[in-house]
Amino acid sequence: MRVRFFNIIAGLASRHPWKVVMIALFITIVSAAYSTSTIKLNANLDELVSEDLDYHRRYLDFLEEFGDEEYLYVVADSAGDMTRAKQFIMSLAARLQKVDGLKHVIWKIDNPVLERNFLLYLTPKQLDTIRGILTEGPFTAGNIASWQDFAPLFGGLADRISKPVSAEDEEELSQGFTFIDDLLGGIAAVLSGGTPNESGMQSLFFGDDGTFDADGFYRNGDLFFLMIMPEKDFTTMEVIEKPLADIRWAISETRAEFPGLDAGLTGRPVLSADEIATSDRDMTRATLLAIVLVGIFFMIFFGSISRPVLAMFSLIMGISWTFGVVALLYGTLNLLSIVFTLILIGASIEYAIHLVARYQEELSQTGDIETSMSRALVTSGRADLTSAFTTAAAFLTIIWSDFTALSELGIIAASGIILCLTAMLVVLPAMITLRDRKRAPMDLKKVRPFAIPGLAFIYRKPWVLAVASLVVTAIFVPFISRTGFDNNLLNLQAKGLESVKYEHLIIDKSSETTWFARAIADSIEESEEKTKLFAALPTVRRVDDIERILPKNQQEKQAIVSQIAPAFKNLTFAEPSGEVDRKALVSELEKIADALGRLENDAFSAGRTDAVKELEKFGARVREAITAMEGAAPEMLSRLGEFQRAFLEDLQKNLGILSTGMNPDKIVVTDLPEDLVARFKSPKGRYALFIYPKDNIWDPDALSKFVADIRKVDEESLGTPIEVHESSRLMRATFVRSAVLAFIIICLLVWMDFRSFRCVLLAVAPLVVGLLWLFGAMGLFGIPFNMANFFAIPILIGIGVDFGVHLVHRLKRERSLSAMTTSTGKGVILTAVTNAVGFGAMMMAAHQGISSLGQIMAVGAVCCLAAALVALPPLAKFFNFGRGMD
């Protein structure tokens, strides 16, 4: 049946070549025109998985109800110079407010009601601490305002700790010790010629909020943030291409005003846009390089230019037809299915290689076009048919997945492989016929065969190949266990990208994150209850809820503030001095050292070893400061005087800020900006909570723990961490399941071709052995699987089976290992080389995911080739499929 089918195709090619080519060209042109006018890009990451998945459906519903929360983040590293960083943020904000296409630019609390009543956002405990420090003892607001140098500050501490300390005083003293310890560290840094770190005043006076500083700027640690919500266009590759360019221009212009300040842009939309732009550039370069290299190998192998060109032209036709199918079935391409062209180039060109190679072999013997093409189609065409169906089956196994993008890719790739096969089995023979039919038979016989020196020699002793196969397997198999899976999506990005750099900066220098989970509450009471439960989780850093903008217990807090307010009446600030009284300062520090010694003895007597250790450390810091002061040169004392003035001015500034909030009014919803309220309360009257992770959310283990923890509180939690966690699991599960299913289906299809279990074992041997060697090589060289290079597996499954099918067909026909040295064996070699070179060109990519895909494809193609050439022949000999060549 198949022989008759291929003879009919050969007859069409020889008798009606022009008709075949013209019909194919017409279909190609129509497909290209229709797909060009129809296919749109859908770059929306939220549409990559099925809406039927519960976690994703909840996320989409949340976005519809509350709006988009995928912000861009400008990060400015103050490096200790807070004033300069704030000036940068303010200058940048002024520029960005003039940029079109930006819906929100958030960089500080800029609302008179919130600024006037900021103390109501502190907890009662924090307000009690302020009351305890500033209303009695040596550190009252009035005393602090009168300080002109450091001496009374340290004198006040010495006086405070020389008196008995109750258990109630311990927490207050602990905060004071932390504050003074930071100050002593600053003094030591100045006297040693260094730069002091930021003081702990904000934590002391305003609590350790970690989100806004005393001036209302959005900050965490040394980093200042500016959040941007741009308009998003999902019909473009980068989604935020136009606003992103404008934002980066604004950052560049602002950086020029502040030379040396480290600032840049990051956030999930930026990382995604940069990844797409980088991968697109890398793929373009790799494709061009691959075409050049593959073209060179084609010309060397076939000994001509025209036949390889015709083979590539038939491939282009098949790809064009596939675009037409995409236009008919979907009308869009997503960020995964868009790679189908690369897959078709790598997986389909081998059909043309084997056909042309076999045609040239037959032509060199007969000189007759129709006879040679008929034999080539009956032999290589049959193997191509089985190979194409097995490869298509491998891709079809991923269509039963809730990962919509993968499902679409599977259907498109499978359809494309069949269409490319059709172009190469029907159109390519017709084009070759048109090329060759005007040439004399003697000229056609002059085909220069592609020679591989020594290829015949290695098959004279099959047992040597068997031993070599066992040795290689023994070397690689133990390393399979080292082959892991890197789930960290940040590791896929190109090194050196600005967005990656500043994402790492956020991770390394702050407890902030651009990813956060969300939960929904139907009432304020439920929101408060969930906030407490989420905040108690070990993997959660903070929870933002409606209380963040509408504080609770306002009446209780107003009462506490009213008790603090008298301390700020008639507050008069003294002029801080730039002169240091060395003798007075050393004297006060010595008093502190003596008082600390007494506290250590008391703590030791009470068995408080933890307190003793802390007091010893603090005492050592005091003694170091005394030694540094006593030995300080005049110029160092001058620097210390400038530090003293700046420190006390900052202290007075914070007292001034506190004084402005001593008469707070109750805050109600109508006092707040609508945009701010909308983030926490939807038009349906439901409330949103934002849960921020404590650990590095890009770390898969930390992500898994975070997701598991928040689901203990609310199983219906949602957000980017859940999306990434579940989608990663879904993709891995899809590929593992499809690989197993593909292997079973492939074995069935191969059996249907050969009707022999021995042939099935031989045909799949290059795949099985090749993949074993590949996994071992990956473990040996430290190449992990990731979310990008996992795409190599279905392609390699197709390649490995194709090698086996073609060689087994030839071995079955020749019944000798000499079949390995024919055009079939050489075609397998060229196929492997073109795949290794074509995909291997991606190793030059800056995008680490694409580079690793190139690595696995190159290594995998070589492993499958080596398995086909080395491991298959001894098995064939064992199953009596081939005699040795001795």
Annotation keywords:
single chain, mainly alpha, five-stranded antiparallel sheet, 13 strands, elongated
List the helices and strands and how they pair.
Layout: H1 2-15, H2 17-38, E1 40-41, H3 54-66, E2 72-77, H4 82-96, E3 102-106, H5 112-116, H6 124-134, H7 141-146, H8 151-161, H9 170-191, H10 201-206, E4 219-220, E5 223-230, H11 241-257, E6 262-266, H12 268-302, H13 306-329, E7 332-333, H14 340-366, H15 369-396, H16 404-436, H17 441-445, H18 462-476, E8 485-486, H19 498-509, E9 517-521, H20 524-535, E10 540-544, H21 554-564, H22 582-605, H23 609-630, H24 634-660, H25 674-680, E11 687-693, H26 700-713, E12 718-719, H27 720-754, H28 757-781, E13 785-786, H29 792-814, H30 823-840, H31 848-878
Parallel strand pairs: 1-7, 8-13
Antiparallel strand pairs: 2-5, 2-6, 3-5, 4-5, 9-11, 9-12, 10-11
Question: How does this model look, in words?
Answer:
The chain is mostly helical and 886 residues long. It is built from 31 helices and 13 strands. Strands 2, 3, 4, 5 and 6 form a five-stranded antiparallel beta sheet that branches. Strands 10-11-9-12 form a four-stranded antiparallel beta sheet. The chain has a two-stranded parallel sheet with strand order 1-7. The protein is elongated. It starts with a helix and ends in an 8-residue tail after the last helix. The mean pLDDT is 83.
Briefly, what is this?
The protein is mostly helical. 64% of the residues lie in helices and 6% in strands. The model has no long low-confidence stretch (mean pLDDT 83).
